[in-house]
Amino acid sequence: MATASALELKNIYAAYDSADVLEDVSLSVPAGKITCLLGSNGAGKSTIIRSILGLTPPRSGDILVDGESLIGLPTHKVISAGIACIPEGRKVFPKMTVVENLRLGAFQESSESVIRDRIDQVFEIFPRLKERKGQLAGTMSGGEQAMVSIGRGLMAAPKVLLIDEPSLGLSPLFVKENFNIIRRINEQGITVFLVEQNVHQTLAIAHYGYVLSQGHVVAQGTAKELSENAEVHEAYFG
Amino acid sequence: MDMGLLGQFIVNGMMLGMMYALVAVGFTLFFGVLDVIKFSHGDVLMVGTFAGFSTYLGLGAIGIDNAFVQLIGVLVVAIGSMAILGAIIARYLVLPLKSAPPLNTLLVTLMLGTVLREAIRLFYPDGSNPKRFPSLLPTDSWTIGSFNLRADSVILLVGGLLVIVGVHVLINRTRLGMAIRAVAQDEETAKCMGINFKMIVLLTFGLGSAVAAFAGVMNGLYYNEINFGMGLLLGVIGFSAAIIGGLGNIYGAILGGFIFAALQTLGAVALPFASAYKDVFAFAVVIALIAWRPTGLIAEKTSERV
User: Fold this and answer.
1) Looking at this predicted complex, what is its ipTM?
2) B244: which of A124, A207, B201, B258 is 20 to 30 A away, CA to CA?
3) Which domain holds residue B69?
4) What pLDDT, on the 0 to 100 scale, is given for residue B238?
5) In a domain, B305, yes or no
6) What is the pTM of this model?
7) From the CA of A80, how many Å to the nearest CA of chain B?
């Protein structure tokens, strides 16, 4: 690959919930691009995200951000290294307001003016959040919570943004909008690592992709190559 | 009833309510961040009070007999040392048991409470006998009709109120408070926001224990007597108050504390037999309250929607 890797996984072995197991997974997320990871339920996608975040430390292998290893770091240090996450199922803090949720996204940022600027930027992307900034996130609709979760991920101004199943549980209209927003986020220069089951829409915005099956990387290539790969097609595209 | 006596009961009830609320806040904070019951909480309060009492004796021994300086010294040492003890308990006893069933934490801290209690009884000089806690507050009083309002009571109530307001501001208006709430609502997502989870747990246990130490000193100043067993009943009452209010909810805990004190006072005033039954009455009502509202009086305000 021509561009440098912002995030790199080398020979990762890990296990979570005993069913979701990774065996010798290596992948590279080039800087400034959208890289996707496709795979069905139980393929090991969540374990990869958990390994990167330090929530489920891998048994062996190395994870690098800009060449620095994350192995052994507690989660908050992984975040300091420039990772942010939009978690599966949105995971907004239900008993906090929209603004508090956003502020938590920038928890490690100490400058109040920087935090305010970023909140304004998020409100520009999601005007609806501005209208509802004082509302408790737990009382919002699923689509609105997705906005809060995405906005919160942006608040950290990360080097690499992990996005875990953004389409899960959302109506098709919202899914489409979300994918557009992910593309816009990437166009602002943020490296995106997108984990999804929704193959067609994901490959439409991704530059590069990996396919995970039963804990192994079974295919990789540019989005175009993957969508033309007969084997992948048969197994995952239906 | 005589107005003076009624006033006395009200002031006394508010004082008790304030102390119970302060203890209950600790239980609810600990449960919030870690979903555990720390049963040594009342005994930490007692140790804090003894630390404050020792400070008073120490200051007296080196010739400092200004009551105000002594009071500040007592408060600083009691609160500061219990903040540290609370964090140590969290670090070495509670966090290591994080992946164990919560009952184990309850049992271990129950035993720690006994260790603390017995340690004071056995190793504190003449620890098995009650100690006379000094009156460090002004002893002026105002007489309104037949009601005698003492300045020290007013100061204690205002002090307790300030601590409660302080905790409220800390939890709702500061970055630390936001982190504590985030950890309480969703530990893993809080970590993913870059919050140092262990540090927040230690600070929360330090905070809760410091507030308990304040309640202990308040108790000593009000009754002018402390003993090694004083934390036991206060701990059980504080725990009950936190449960009545809805464990994990700070305002519920405060409400619960005042409800319990109101019940005790009512039991002492209104029951036809001796006031010795006031605890029996209060706990019986608590049992009824819990049967009526198993998850506490203050219901969750938000529901999760898809």
Assistant:
1) 0.92
2) B201
3) 25-126+152-227
4) 96
5) no
6) 0.91
7) 7
